[in-house]
Design a protein that fits this description.
Blueprint: H1 3-10, E1 15-20, H2 30-36, E2 46-49, E3 55-60, E4 66-71, H3 77-88, E5 91-97, H4 103-115, E6 120-124, H5 145-156, E7 174-179, H6 190-202, E8 207-210, H7 216-228, E9 235-236, E10 238-239, H8 247-255, H9 261-268, H10 273-293, E11 298-302, H11 308-315
Parallel strand pairs: 1-2, 1-11, 2-5, 5-6, 6-7, 7-8, 8-9, 10-11
Antiparallel strand pairs: 3-4
Helix pairs in contact: 5-6, 9-10, 10-11
The structure holds flavin-adenine dinucleotide.
InterPro entries: FAD-linked_oxidoreductase-like, Mehydrof_redctse-like, MTHF_reductase_bac
EC number: 1.5.1.54
Protein name: Methylenetetrahydrofolate reductase
């Protein structure tokens, strides 16, 4: 079932959902299940599964030289979506990236999703690879998320690449895209970024999930500005509980987001990362309570594969 249908069916009640990352290749899927199991008591109607970009690894050739290989460390997004969907009877949302894929490869991913009965996909550009300064699409790949949304929308109309077939069985994907309450790090201004978001919606996006934020006023202002810009699809807030002290430097640096002073000092006062995790839980509970009271459609948590903190938060709310 589509995310938009889940929201409609909930009739104003806020839903609970979360995002997981595939395990590093070579690991067992049971670790993932062990983290999902406790969260199922909160009846998530859908679970997102991220896609990681390829990266370079350097293999010692033993003669003083290094061999550079390109690899994907966390493959398996669509397979994991299928496994979770069938194990828990829940909708899953694979993240589909522009970066690292040709349009043909993207089409094959979407065809797999269609055969597997996956009704939703999250369309994202992806980031630059670690050695790159700027994002560069693959030759023959989509450049911006809008281009990817257009490709998925075309598929929904039975239009495949290269017009080589006539479809008798159209896909009907519900398409999610990313939104940035504190603007995307490359965007010159929030207003420009909102214009780009509107382009994604005009191209066929059905809902938006936000980047993490720690000050709800940023989300409320973003939703207001988006409405003014003519964006009328659900905007789902993404919540990340701070889990380690290093997040104080890492999150602003990687995502160009602000952390409130009170949160920073609470984390700085912690003696151990166990204490930090507790501060992160309490902050996320307060954030979630206010968002719940404001009637957001879904509270969507970035679990990063470890569910104990998301479980503690959801226990207070759902
Ligand atoms: P876009 O919407 O394409 O925007 C990227 C930048 O380009 C923005 O600054 C925008 O303003 C600008 N722009 C857009 N269109 C144009 C245009 N036509 N001309 C000029 N500028 C333009 N990353 C992963 O690798 N895997 C994941 O699974 C993943 N999941 C995510 C889930 C969520 C909810 C969010 C918020 C992010 C996720 N990301 C993920 C990170 C995401 O890939 C990065 O934030 C990426 O840098 C931007 O992706 P986007 O889809 O927002 O890009």
């Amino acid at each position: 079932m589509k995310i938009t249908e889940h929201i409609k069916k909930a009739d104003g009640k806020t839903l609970f959902s979360f995002e997981i990352i595939p395990p590093k290749k070579g690991n067992n899927i049971n670790d993932l299940y062990n983290n999902i199991d406790p969260l199922m008591e909160f009846n998530p109607p859908f679970i997102d599964v991220t896609t990681s970009r390829e990266e370079y690894v350097y293999i010692d050739k033993g003669n003083g030289l290094l061999d550079r290989k390109i690899t994907r460390m966390r493959p398996g997004t669509v397979g994991i979506c299928a496994a979770i969907k069938h194990k828990y009877d829940v909708d899953t949302v694979p993240h589909v990236l522009c970066g690292g894929f040709t349009k043909e490869e993207t089409e094959y991913v979407l065809v797999d999703c269609h055969y597997l009965g996956i009704d939703n996909v999250m369309a994202l550009r992806g980031d630059a690879m670690s050695h790159q300064k700027y994002f560069t699409p693959n030759q023959g790949g989509n450049h911006y998320a809008t281009d990817l949304v257009k490709q998925i929308s075309d598929l929904n109309c039975g239009k495949y690449l290269h017009d080589v077939i006539e479809s008798t069985n159209k896909a009907d994907f519900c398409i999610g895209v990313a939104g940035y309450p504190e603007k995307h790090l490359e965007a010159p201004s929030l207003q420009t970024d909102l214009k780009r978001l509107k382009e994604k919606v005009d191209a066929g996006a059905d809902y938006v999930v936000t980047q993490m934020f720690f000050d709800n006023q940023k989300y409320f202002a973003f939703v207001e500005a988006a409405k003014k810009a003519g964006i009328n699809v659900p905007i789902i807030p993404g919540i990340k509980p701070i889990a380690v002290k290093r997040h104080l430097q890492l999150l602003p640096q990687v995502f160009k987001i602000d952390l409130p002073e009170t949160l920073i000092s609470s984390v700085e006062n912690c003696k151990t990362n166990k204490d930090v995790r507790q501060v992160g839980i309490e902050w996320a509970i307060q954030q979630s309570k206010e968002l719940l009271a404001a009637g957001v459609p879904v509270l969507h948590y970035y679990s990063m594969g470890k569910s104990d903190n998301v479980h503690a938060i959801a226990s207070e709310l759902f």
